[in-house]
Write a structure and sequence with these properties.
alpha/beta, 5-stranded parallel β-sheet, 5-stranded mixed β-sheet, 10 strands, 451 residues
Length: 451
Amino acid sequence: MKRISLDITKAACFLQEGAVKAFEPKVKDAQKALEEGTCPGNDFLGWLHLPSSITKEFLAEVKQTADVLRAECEAIVVAGIGGSYLGARAVIEALGNSFAWLRQEKANPTILFAGNNIGEDYLSELTEYLKDKKFGVINISKSGTTTETALTFRLLKKQCEEQRGKEEARRVIVAVTDAKKGAARTCADKEGYKSFVIPDNVGGRFSVLTPVGLLPIACAGFDVEKLVEGAQDMECACGKDVPFEENIAAQYAAVRNGLYEAGKKIEIMVNYQPKLHFISEWWKQLYGESEGKDNKGIFPASCDFTTDLHSMGQWIQEGERSIFETVISVEQPNRQLLFPSDEENLDGLNFLAGKRVDEVNKMAELGTRLAHVDGGVPNIRISVPQLNEYYIGQLIYFFEIGCGISGNVLGVNPFNQPGVEAYKKNMFALLDKPGYEAESKAIKERLAKES
């Protein structure tokens, strides 16, 4: 089987000769620290060898639970936020039929995502949509008290029980949560829900290959065994003993740190395949939450090309030269569509007649890459042979290990997120949550002075 590949030549040329190679000792030290558990955040390294530790028995249990939900539900709502939903959504969107939800007869239940915002309109519209549906819920939360997810789950649990009765609802509500503690664990045990455990040593943004991601992906009808197989192969390909010249994760970590030191503070993840939009969204959390601390870190952004070339293309081509691009290029689409000829040729496009639409897309990709490099934008290119479970599994682990290495080279703890708590404290204080009386008083006094 092929593997995804990396081309850094159009990025390394913006650095001094040998600059990427010069990072090899730092990269090797960073990866050694990951392997030996001597790096900051070493209590969250469960993802590092997760692919190779996944058993057939565990995958069979995931698939069996998914089969129950698929058989009994027209729709399945995944309730989670951040890493508790982005990984699953990224894989499902990448592999799914873009218009499957429009078909009257579907082989798979509709997978919906909620608990990732507090939009009243969104939640109201969701509950309205589900009123005449046999639906189930996968509640993904380690604590069970994350505001967005807990609020959504309370609404959905009540509605599911009212529509299906408590006994039937118990069969179609699944908890993915902590092994022993937390509100979600207490609820699951009390109600008798089927449950899966989020490993203590795997953070949310690294959890795609745990039940957090695997169960929703299996419910959508995709092959989780192939997904894991791809991740396992990439785990081997990016191991600590793989030479730097052959280790694409090590090279990715090296070149992006080299560009960062050279003043390139923004990395734009680019795709030319609309199905990859949520891969970029997952990647943004993975790298942004891992590296953005201690007043350091590359800012992760994303664009969908060629769409965003008509909105962001001008800035990328001629704006401030503080950016670099990482392009995910899909070598072979899963479908074929030829461009037709037209007798009148009013649009002047007959020169494309008989060509595959993907050929036009590939030339747009190459032309844009050439223009952006000429415009002073370093370009990294990741080639994915095809969009299927195996290669997406490779891509997931490549980004995860690349992130772990890169964060350690940068000199931060890639596995914590202390800054995320600031808004929560303010929100709870403003909502007069018990236990936040002092904070509530201080904030209200501050707002009164500022008004």
